[in-house]
């Protein structure tokens, strides 16, 4: 957390190395709508004591494509990349939260070591929370973040996840989300 004008700033990196499910990425809006900046737009809709407690939120859209290039999403949507993963502004120690929305679960992440290394370096910092949404757990697994932890992923893919990533206590059959250390994992798409 950094301070700007004495207001704390939460720096959120949305990590989409190749592509992702549009719905899984959309949860970043929770961070944006809980910011001081958003509360200020709402005016009298948010009591000033609450708005004054809210931090500033800075969101980065990080990928392997260059800034200002599109990152593919499902449903023919695209998101504009703001930072390449090599940018100094998004290196370990610079982000408070890394959100990993769900990519294609068939992606072979061994062909993308720049992505898995980047994510592993952030996860190695206890002060950086890693938030995996749905199939984002595949990228987290490929980055070595799961061994020895409890984790959750898409309920219908629990068997596949168990085959691909050993040494993980999979709780997706019972739980919608779980936190283990600085890793938060979820099955965003499943309804109970």
From TrEMBL:
Short name of one Pfam family: DJ-1_PfpI
Residue ranges of every copy of the DJ-1/PfpI domain listed in the record: 62-186
PANTHER family: ARAC-FAMILY TRANSCRIPTIONAL REGULATOR (PTHR43130), DJ-1_PFPI DOMAIN-CONTAINING PROTEIN (PTHR43130:SF7)
Protein name: DJ-1/PfpI domain-containing protein
Organism: Chaetomium globosum (strain ATCC 6205 / CBS 148.51 / DSM 1962 / NBRC 6347 / NRRL 1970)
């Amino acid at each position: 957390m950094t301070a700007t004008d004495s207001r704390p700033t939460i720096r959120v990196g949305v990590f989409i190395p190749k592509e992702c499910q549009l719905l899984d990425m959309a949860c970043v809006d929770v961070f944006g709508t809980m910011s001081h900046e958003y509360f200020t737009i709402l005016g009298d809709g948010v009591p000033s004591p609450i708005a004054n407690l809210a931090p500033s939120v800075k969101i980065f859209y990080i990928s392997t494509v260059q800034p200002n290039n599109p990152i593919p999403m499902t449903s023919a949507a695209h998101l504009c990349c703001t930072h390449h993963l090599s940018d100094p502004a998004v290196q370990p120690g610079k982000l408070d939260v890394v959100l990993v929305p769900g990519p294609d679960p068939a992606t072979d992440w061994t062909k993308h070591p720049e992505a898995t290394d980047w994510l592993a370096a952030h996860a190695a910092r206890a002060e950086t929370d890693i938030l995996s949404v749905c199939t984002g757990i595949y990228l987290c697994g490929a980055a070595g973040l799961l061994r020895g932890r409890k984790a959750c992923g898409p309920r219908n893919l629990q068997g596949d996840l168990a085959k691909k990533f050993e040494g993980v206590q999979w709780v997706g059959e019972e739980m919608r989300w779980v936190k283990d250390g600085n890793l938060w994992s979820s099955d965003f798409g499943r309804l109970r």
